[in-house]
């Protein structure tokens, strides 16, 4: 990262924050490799806080220059060093806070700041959540790898009849409950299952069938999920879980995995799934290689009629 690159970032942030966006969003997506010399930096606006994520270690002088530039901004700045173990974060300006509330499409979400690798809401999935909200009315929704239940919040806001959230992290599901309560949702329509997906097929089937299924796994989670090995296992189970004409949003955030992987796995494991479209990512997440960004593929299930 050169002095010229830091000046470029500074000018970009000044323009993006004049005036500050009304809701949380990405301000600068260096990881999309569209900005020479800034590939290791991404910046989010969290409605009063600027979160800067640094993904590769710079030289000491470069880090000092970057910190000086960020400290000149008018908003509180939190710098997260994602290249170090546990991803420590430094408050460059402003008072330190550990929890913060932001909004997306009018819905509220609570974030963790400075204490975890991820704050609790992946901003690149905004279009996916909006798509679900617009189509959830009266539907039964299964949210796999639910994390903090942002998809669930969007679904209930859109009038879903039922949402079942499954994630191995009970702490994440607890935050999911909080997110629903922030939006004054009726939790009698929401279930939270802190289970291992691959040991829970029977329970999920009993709670189904589902009109919409969201699959948004991590690329790798030690001891529980490996993208290249386990995505096919999920596709294989979908015919048992889906209603007639049910829909699936299959997501992948691994930059080294193209949409062709999901298409091939679906074709092999669940031939009844018909690919419909790939949802566009928010424009602020521009990528020099579109296949390196978030992939959100929509499928519709066509049940085979009995002979």
Notes on the protein architecture:
By secondary structure, the chain is an alpha/beta fold. Helices cover 29% and strands 28% of the residues. It has eight helices and 16 strands. It has helices at residues 3-16, 60-71, 126-135, 150-157, 170-182, 201-207, 227-241, 259-269, and strands at residues 25-29, 41-45, 50-54, 77-81, 89-93, 99-104, 107-112, 140-144, 162-166, 190-193, 210-215, 220-221, 225-226, 242-252, 273-278, 295-301. It has a seven-stranded mixed β-sheet with strand order 10-9-8-11-14-16-15, with helices on both faces. Strand 8, helix 4 and strand 9 (162-166) form a beta-alpha-beta unit. Helix 7 (227-241) crosses helix 8 (259-269). The radius of gyration is 20 Å and the shape is globular. One of its GO terms (molecular function) is methyltransferase activity. Pfam families: Methyltrans_SAM (PF10672). This is 23S rRNA (Cytosine1962-C5)-methyltransferase. Residues 26-299 form the S-adenosylmethionine-dependent methyltransferase domain.
Keywords:
307 residues; alpha/beta; Transcription Regulator spoIIAA; Rossmann fold; 7-stranded mixed sheet; 8 helices
CATH topology of the largest domain: Rossmann fold
**What is Rg?**
20 Å
Q: SSE order, as H and E?
A: HEEEHEEEEHEHEHEHEEEHEHEE
Helix content: 25-40%
Helical run tally: 8
Give the overall shape, derived from the CA principal axes: globular
CATH architecture descriptor text of the largest domain: 3-Layer(aba) Sandwich
What is the average per-residue confidence, as pLDDT, rounded to a whole number? 94
What separation lies between the terminal Cα atoms? 64 Å
| Beta-strand percentage range | 25-35%
In the predicted model, the low-confidence regions spanning at least 5 consecutive residues are: none
Q: Biggest sheet, open or closed, and with what strands and sense?
A: 7 strands, mixed
For the record, the count of structural domains works out to 2
InterPro entries: SAM-dep_methyl-trfase (IPR019614), SAM-dependent_MTases_sf (IPR029063)
Domain S-adenosylmethionine-dependent methyltransferase: 26-299
Protein name: 23S rRNA (Cytosine1962-C5)-methyltransferase
Keywords: Methyltransferase, rRNA processing, S-adenosyl-L-methionine, Transferase
């Amino acid at each position: 990262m050169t002095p010229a690159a830091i000046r470029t970032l500074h000018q970009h942030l000044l323009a993006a924050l004049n005036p500050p966006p009304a809701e949380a969003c990405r301000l600068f997506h260096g990881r999309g490799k569209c900005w020479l010399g800034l590939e290791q930096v991404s910046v989010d606006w969290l409605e009063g806080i600027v979160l800067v994520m640094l993904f590769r270690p710079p030289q000491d002088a470069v880090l000092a220059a970057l910190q000086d530039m960020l400290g000149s901004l008018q908003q509180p700045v939190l710098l997260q060093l994602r290249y170090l173990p546990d991803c420590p974060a430094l408050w460059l300006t402003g008072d330190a806070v550990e929890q913060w509330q932001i909004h997306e499409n009018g819905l509220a979400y609570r974030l963790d700041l400075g204490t975890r690798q991820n704050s609790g809401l992946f901003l690149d999935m905004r279009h996916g959540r909006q798509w679900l909200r617009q189509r959830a009315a009266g539907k039964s929704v299964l949210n796999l790898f639910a994390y903090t239940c942002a998809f669930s919040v969007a679904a209930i806001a859109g009038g879903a009849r039922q949402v079942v959230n499954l994630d191995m992290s009970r702490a994440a599901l607890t935050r999911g409950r909080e997110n629903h309560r922030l939006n004054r949702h009726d939790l009698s329509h929401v279930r939270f299952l802190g289970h291992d997906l691959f040991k829970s097929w029977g329970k999920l089937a009993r709670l189904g069938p589902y009109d919409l299924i969201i699959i948004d796994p991590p690329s790798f989670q030690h001891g529980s999920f490996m993208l290249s090995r386990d995505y096919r296992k999920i596709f294989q189970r979908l015919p048992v879980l889906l209603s007639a004409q049910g829909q699936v949003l299959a997501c992948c955030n691994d930059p080294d995995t193209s949409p062709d992987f999901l298409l091939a796995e679906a074709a092999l494991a669940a031939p009844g799934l018909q690919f419909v479209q790939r949802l566009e990512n928010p424009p602020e997440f521009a990528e020099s290689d579109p296949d390196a960004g978030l992939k959100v593929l929509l499928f519709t299930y066509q049940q085979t009629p009995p002979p």
